[in-house]
Amino acid sequence: MYLVDTHTHIYSEEFDGDRAEVIAGAQAAGVKMFFLPNIDASSFEAMHSLSDAYPDCCFPMAGLHPTSVNENFRAELEIVRRRLDSRKYIAIGEIGIDLYWDKTFRTEQIEAFETQLQWSIERNFPVSIHTREAFPEVFASIRNIGADRLRGVFHSFGGSRGELEEALEFENFLLGINGTVTYKNSRFREYLNIAPIKRILLETDAPYLPPVPHRGERNEPAYLPLVVAKLAEVYGISAEEIAEKTTENALRMFGVKPILNC
Fold first, then answer.
1. DSSP H or E run through 233
2. For the residues 227-243, what does the mean pLDDT come to?
3. Per-residue pLDDT tens for 82-97?
4. CA 238, chain centre distance (Å)
5. Chain-centre distance for alpha carbon 185
6. Residue 209: which region, alpha, beta or left (left: phi > 0; alpha: psi -120 to 50)?
């Protein structure tokens, strides 16, 4: 089994004590590639350090996370823009709109999101989109900037059936599925299979959102086969086919060539 974790924060401080062991364990479990979304100016160095140490399997993105948007967001965006000019990335992310915790900077979040969507068009990059309690705003921004010119992934998708149906209208976008699909109260898996498997990507969002039976623990890329197993149930096909199709989807979307080992 060859798997791609398309959204993982293994550069974060939660892994400072055993990062090499975590990567080795993931490789042993079949997870061969790790795509690293950025958060804000403070996370670039750790992310770059990891991708420089493992250049064949750890691939960075550049972006400003919506929960890091505040009154100084334009200065933060300028840092992201300069980073994009300074080295190679595979995507713009993690970007989006999050109105779950705080709506104070709703307008600023929308502006930051749309600015980065425009950058993705100019640079021909996919985007990794974070949305929480904000699907209408996210969908509106995509349409505003140009859905036919954008491509990417709705990271950690767990929306309603209606939100899923609307997300699928954006033909150049895939759905990132992680450990939440294994949770007992995750109703979205009841209708997830209306999305064809060609629209699905695997992710962990480690260290967050660990799958059952690891809830309450630090999430790790090595747990990705548990997501594969649940998706095999949802789609009524083998785990091997889930792995094969989602890996093809990831490599195609992010323009990365497969490798055997880091």
1. helix 224-235
2. 98
3. 999 999 999 999 999 9
4. 24
5. 22
6. left
Residues 6 or more apart whose Cβ sits within 8 Å of residue 79: 41, 44
Closest CA to 153 of 4, 21, 12, 1: 4
Tokens of 188: 């979205």
* Dist CA 164 CA 169 (whole Å): 9
* Cα(141)–Cα(135) distance, integer angstroms: 10
Cβ-contact 92, 127 below 8 angstroms: yes
Predicted structure pTM score: 0.97
Residue 202 sits at φ, ψ, to 5 deg, of -100, 145
State the angle between helix axes of 135-145 and 106-123 in degrees (0 to 180), rounded to the nearest 10.
Answer: 40
Cα atoms in the 13 Å half-sphere on the side-chain side of 227: 33
Q: Which helix (H) or strand (E) holds 74?
A: helix 73-86
Count the Cβ atoms, other than its own, within 10 Å of residue 85.
9
Distance in angstroms (rounded) separating the CA atoms of residues 9 and 126: 18
Q: What does the block give as tokens for 207?
A: 């260290």
Query: What six digits make up the tokens of 36?
Result: 């690293």
Number of C-beta neighbours around residue 71 at 10 A: 9
Question: Where do the DSSP E strands lie in 69-110?
Answer: 92-98
pLDDT bucket at 259, cuts 50 / 70 / 90: confident
Residue 202: beta bridge partners? 177
d(CA 176, CA 189): 13
- Supply 209's token pair: 């959102």
Residue with tokens 């995750």: 186
